[in-house]
Amino acid sequence: MRAIQVDRFGGPEVLTLRQVPEPVPGPGQSLITVEAAGVNFADAVQTDGSYEGGEPPPYVPGREVVGRTRDGRRVAALTRGGYAELALADDARMIDVPDDLPAGQALALLMQGLTAWHLLRTAARLLPGESVVVHSAAGGVGSLAVQLAREFGAAWVGAAVSTAAKRDLVLSLGADAVVGYPLDRPADVILDAVGGRLFDEALDSLAVSGRLVTYGNASRAGFTPVDPARLGRLGAGVVGFWLRPVLARPGGYAEPLRELLSLTLRGRLRPVTGAEYPLAEARRAHEDLLARRTTGKVILRP
């Protein structure tokens, strides 16, 4: 079968289309004919070797797919080796999706949808009536977090974006305003995947008892030391978040995913679909993602 393989760590240039053996399902696994594979920032970080817990080369990247099982079910699933024509998934990590749900929307609900859900529910523990600021709000996680914050009862949602087109998008998704720092008013919850200077500015913009949730370092600027005395003066907190261990907890995967799917099918949640690339152009997909030229869910089509 055709698949993208990483033979050595590096940038997007190490993504190479190859013929590789078909995967063989083991107990409790299913083989999926891939309709579309999701592209995530974490894929790019794993490719360059800086992702904690990543696989050593050679490997096939890709953690999520939509496709059909051998018995004809259309499913969305977390997997390993999704950048391929065929992928394996644990049966416990699959969910049936309707035939009329676009593949990009279904994929957006997996790693990015579950991340947005857990950022607000598990990490920030958002309370009704609180205010939320979302960094990178036009991206896959951010665009869903803006909508879910409103769905979960936030009284005000601010969005940080980098272009005018992205501004229009986040306002159409329900953000009350596009914001920059310093904020006009302190925020109860700030979601940050950028790090660096933006993290530091966000920390100074928290309300009393506010929570700054950090779940990435897209700026690659290094980690900002946080002085506990500073947190004490602010009366605020910093919460670190990583999706993988959260999904392993009871109730961490299937239940929130079903809620996300239900909200989408009822029209209350609109996953933003972005660019689609042929499997052979995985390198270009990563280049565009890293250059912040994309919005919403980016996918590969085998």
Reconstruct the topology from this structure:
Blueprint: E1 2-6, E2 15-19, E3 29-39, H1 41-47, E4 64-69, E5 74-78, E6 86-90, E7 94-96, H2 103-108, H3 111-123, E8 131-134, H4 140-151, E9 156-159, H5 164-172, E10 177-178, E11 187-192, H6 196-203, E12 206-214, H7 228-234, E13 237-240, H8 243-247, H9 254-265, E14 273-278, H10 282-290, E15 297-301
Can you put this structure into words, describing what you see?
The chain is of the alpha/beta class and 302 residues long. It has two domains: 2-109 and 271-301, Alpha-Beta Complex (Quinone Oxidoreductase, Chain A, domain 1), CATH 3.90.180.10; 113-245, Rossmann fold (3-Layer(aba) Sandwich), CATH 3.40.50.720. Helices cover 29% and strands 26% of the residues. It is built from ten helices and 15 strands. The strands form three sheets. Strands 3, 4, 5, 6, 7, 14 and 15 form a seven-stranded mixed β-sheet that branches. The N and C termini lie close together (10 Å). The mean pLDDT is 94.
Q: Can you give keywords for this protein?
A:
302 residues, Quinone Oxidoreductase, Chain A, domain 1, 10 helices, 29% helix, alpha/beta, 26% strand, 2 domains, six-stranded parallel beta sheet, Rossmann fold, seven-stranded mixed beta sheet, globular
What gap, in angstroms, lies between the N and C termini?
10 Å
Number of strands: 15
- Unreliable spans are none
SSE string: EEEHEEEEHHEHEHEEHEHEHHEHE
CATH topology of the largest domain: Quinone Oxidoreductase, Chain A, domain 1
Could you describe the largest sheet, including whether it forms a barrel? 7 strands, mixed
State the CATH class of the largest domain. Alpha Beta
Query: Which percent bin holds the helix content?
Result: 25-40%
Rg of Cα set: 19 Å
